[in-house]
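Usage example:
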Amino acid sequence: MLDCDIAPICKFDRKNYFYPDMPKNYQISQYDMPLCVNGTVPLHDLAYPKDAQKNIATPDKEVHLVRIHLEEDVAKSFHFETSTGIDFNRAGTPLMDIVTQPEINSPEEAFAFLTSLKQILVYGAVSDADMEKGQLRCDCNVSRASGETDGARCEDRDQKNMNSISGVRRALALKFRGKRSARARRETPTGNARLGRCCRRNVSDAHKGIGA
Amino acid sequence: MLGQGRLLELIQDPRIIDAANDPDLRARLKKIRFERGADLCAAETAMKYIATIGLEVHVQLKTRSKMFLRVPGRIWSGAEHAYVPGLPWFAGRIANDESRGPAGDRC
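Running the assembly step on the lines above writes:
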């Protein structure tokens, strides 16, 4: 469906960390041998938001994927006024992580990517992908690389676990606006991540302690 | 003066005081869209940078059971399931899967 290369051998690793939504102290995940690599998601014109369909910068664009790996989902935290509740019903549910190449250039393209991907997953009966129920969540990384320094200077901002496609678009639009303001103030971009690493940071940094 | 940190001298300057009390100037300042101005100023700088977005999408799979347990995976069907991390035989009993025996024996 996504034109991926399925790995002949894949294995699961333990990602060791403690958090109240993962009280057994490790999450079973895949690190160096994911389920599949590469792949593409086509961005159809009708997947773009309606107000942007007449002004598509790159029609028939395809967003390339870095990898897809499986892991188990963690529990869900509910934060009350003075306490926090944890719902373990979704803990242990299989979760598929799809990591894209950093080649999406606008919030509208991100919207189109998520819409296309959701359609593929629902029609393929892979997932119900109901974002209101948290069955499809999205982390965004916005990076700014300088063309003069071969992309080495890169500002990296995360927005984690967003659960609506229009929310992703709004958040990215806000980030783009923030970046323009930062440029107007002539702020120097911080961070030294390279472009290819930006979107994979969540995966690589979280696997600091790999057990059996 | 601002650059030199002489703020006190600046606000005591009669020209500044006159300007602050000038209603015409105040009305003109209100009409200026500073945000738009900042965007225009940034346009030249923006050409030097490439903004890119990378996404990581988490998708819950539509499976009958959980990943490494036999408890039902349809977690949103309405019924709540007891999930006990580290006790797979107990979770197997809760899933009414007694016919296959405790899952812990077969792991």
